[in-house]
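Annex B. Sample input.
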Amino acid sequence: MANLTLTIDEDLLRRARIRALEQGESVNSLVRDWLESYAAGNRQRDVTEEIIAVAGRARASSGSAGRVWTRDNVYEERLSQHD
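Annex B, continued. Sample output.
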């Protein structure tokens, strides 16, 4: 596991420690949880943006019943964009 050094205003850190103690947490665990969430959010956003891009390039109309996407549809569209 790696160490991370942050420069934080003393009053901010004091208030964060108090709030963390009230919740039975440590500032360290809260920062670690936030970083995990932040990092995962980026991956999720990348996947979502790619799906939206594939849907935007699709030549089919969804019609009144809506379009049903399969994994194969998305995979084939993605492959065709990388050729």
